[in-house]
Amino acid sequence: MTSDSEGVEITDSSTMAGVPDAFQRLWTPHRMVYIQNGTQPGDEQCPFCIAPTRSDEDALIVARGRHAYVLLNLFPYNSGHLLVCPYRHIPLYDEATAEETAEIAGLTQTAMRVLREVSNCEGFNLGMNQGRIAGAGIADHLHQHIVPRWATDSNFFPIIAKTKALPQLLGDVRASVAAAWPA
């Protein structure tokens, strides 16, 4: 038998469920599709090349174009954080064709309209981080971020607790954005 910090005897691990510890927990149920199916991409695989080969639901794709597609970010800054990616595996914007850049722009505009409709957002952060040195998490495949913003989405959680509060599950966000996407 062991004792906790207050001297309470603990006989097995099942009694420790409510014992506070120093760990922050971020629940990510959307990752189970990769774990259960054994399809977690390896470090050498590009998730933006893999996504279009999967179903829209599994890959969190909300719209597919001819040269590019739109999907939810698995690690969003805010609910509804979308990415616009060309199908072609290119790292930098200046390597995209005129057709790819035109479609990325058009999909971005549509995404903004749809996000305003389904989430009543008040603004957006749009951006592309080009290369690792510029902060790109996946530097080898071009992608543009579309982050919806609200006046009330800022708080001290990320600063003090290193935690981002997200009020919706990714599957629910994907379903609402995909349903509102024009045909």
UniProtKB/TrEMBL annotation:
Keyword Nucleotide-binding: yes
CDD domains for the chain: FHIT
InterPro entries: AP-4-A_phosphorylase, FHIT, HIT-like, HIT-like_sf
GO molecular function: hydrolase activity; nucleotide binding
Ranges for domain HIT: 47-156
Active site annotation, chain numbering: 143
Motif (Histidine triad motif) on chain: 141-145
Chain segments annotated as transmembrane: none
Ribosomal protein keyword on record: no
Residues at which substrate binds: 73, 145
Keywords: Hydrolase, Nucleotide-binding
PROSITE patterns: HIT_2
The protein's name in its UniProt record: HIT family hydrolase
